[in-house]
Amino acid sequence: MEEPKRKWRLPDLKGANPLSSRIARLIFASNLAGLAILILGAMVLNEMRASFVVAKKQDLVGQAQVFSNLLAEGATFGQPQPVMDEDLARATLADLSLPVSIRGKVYGPEGSLIGDSYFLSDRVVVSSLPPLQEPSRLSRWGRSLSEWAVSTFGAIVPDRGGDAVRTQTFEDEFAVAASGAEAASQRFNDRGQRIISVSVPVQHVSAVVGVLTVESNDIDEIIRAERAALIPFIGVAVLVALITSTLLTIGIARPLRRLSAAADDVRSGSSQRLDLPRIARRRDEIGALANSMGSMTDALFERISANEQFAADVAHEIKNPLTSIRSAVETAERVKGNPEAMAKLHEVIAHDVGRLDRLITDISNASRLEAEITRVPTETMNIARFVQDVVSTYEHLKLDEAGPTVSFEDATMGAGLRVRGREGPLGQVIRNLIDNALSFSPQDGTVTVRVEQDRIGPQTTARIVVEDIGPGIPDDKLEKIFDRFYTDRPKGAAFGRNSGLGLSIVQQIAATHLGQVWAENRESGGARFVVELPAS
User: What residue stretches are annotated with the Histidine kinase domain (predicted)?
Assistant: First the structure.
């Protein structure tokens, strides 16, 4: 069975690098875009938190130092021993009029509480505490996201706030301040609020007579504000993810679904080919897939059509000798008494039976050859040596028989030209061409088989040339002779000795080896057949 002509091409190695693929680059970019936005947001928020904590601590330290100086000037005495007047200390603390978010406490050197701004201020509002509640899902999610960002990107962006304000108990903070140094910490107060606390010593001359603690309880609001600041980044990341997902769906999923639907239509018989021109024009793997699937379906339908035509041709070719045999048998019933006529009828029947046998044998060989082409793997061979081996079998066969001779010529000058193919089918090509040339050659003629080297663009090719000195081929039949069952021969040639499949098989094998075959007439007389194959 025939196959459409194919052009050979060099292997495509462009897909060796994954990033050379447009789809691969699109997938990488879309997956990294959202992550890049989250990384940027985490880095910015981490820097914002560090800057805020440091600024808050420095602000509280400045206020605590001012308040400590006021207490040292107005509530401490130095005779006979430096001490703090508790009444004056409470009055001074009350006169400070601290804002609601700031709480000041004065302690004695032993740790006893002397005054608390929450209870000394005239603006104190007494209200019942709200009932304890579990954190909301949004709060838990925001806390988890913050912890994940800190743990993931902490190595990239240092947490300056964590270094500046440590988490420690009030006893540790008080001990540092009582020794004459400043201390700052983060912790939860008695109301369950996260606070930043700064403790400084209250000194008279150089003696520590008390400790002033200033606390800020608006840290939770700042954290909530930070989480709210993360929402735009999350929204942008989600938006980018939706956009990239939509692009992936439009660019990959939808074309693949259309290809699948078109393939189902071909399978069900509602369509004979994949008609997806927009997808086939894409310059990526999906476009290549669409073109490959289109070529595959076209090749399948061409193969099916070729098989149907082959079956019709076989039926027609078999029917002709069968009709002749039936006619001879019917005629024999009427001429039983005529020995001469009976002999001629027997000769016709024997001739047609031989014709049927050759036809069935060639059809069987053609089917076996097609199966061999499909199953047998290719191998690299020295084409000149291979052709010479095939020609040598004809030289041995003609030793004891009269008739045309076959000669071999290596026109590559020993270049060792190599071709990748299958020995059985390629041997059949050479034998069919030689047999065809012998059938048209005179008894004293010579069939020349020659191997040449040529080039088509960057591709080196091997040419197998078979020449005879017969009558040649009519110009209008140079292409038609490769049709199946074509048996038009010159006058005087014996009829029925050829099935008309030989040259058709040659063309089929050449096509499966990514090559081509053609016929031409020699200027000096005779025909020339050329098989051109890509060299490896």
Answer: 313-536
